[in-house]
Amino acid sequence: xxxxxxxxxxxxxxxxxxxxxxxxxxxxxxxxxxxxxxxxxxxxxxxxxxxxxxxxxxxxxxxxxxxxxxxxxxxxxxxxxxxxxxxxxxxxxxxxxxxxxxxxxxxxxxxxxxxxxxxxxxxxxxxxxxxxxxxxxxxxxxxxxxxxxxxxxxxxxxxxxxxxxxxxxxxxxxxxxxxxxxxxxxxxxxxxxx
Length: 194
Prior knowledge:
Layout: H1 2-17, E1 21-23, E2 30-35, E3 41-43, E4 56-58, E5 68-70, E6 75-79, E7 84-89, E8 100-104, E9 115-120, E10 124-125, E11 129-134, E12 137-141, E13 146-147, E14 154-161, H2 169-193
Antiparallel strand pairs: 1-14, 2-4, 2-8, 3-5, 5-6, 6-7, 7-14, 8-12, 9-14, 10-13, 11-12
Helix pairs in contact: 1-2
């Protein structure tokens, strides 16, 4: 019985502390990209031409071009205003190698980044590694993926914490107390019948 009570309390605590993500608006975002630790990424704002600051770009206002191309032209990255990232392999299959990216939004975001989740990986065999590095940066590792075709995107969603869906600590405590009380009364009733 103690095991059931503890499992119930743990599940209730986990449910109460989950943060639900909402799409993160990237309006007015300024994005700095790095590729394997270097600035070998070319942004739309620089016309995809190498030079100082060419790895920094805002969103394409016409939404018709990718925001970044890698310097070796292997990958293209397209961000939407609603925080959806589409990744394109321009050369399939990309050569074996290390393909690690960081996208840093600095202080240009309306809210902190809370999640970075895969939406569609049907274009690849294997799983990319997605990570939230801090409140304004995401990491992406495309090493070891088998791409099924060029210009078929791999997509991921950048999310922010949706404050409306996060329970208040007092609500969670009341929920836990109620569950514990029900479990204890059930135990007493069972002990009395035995």
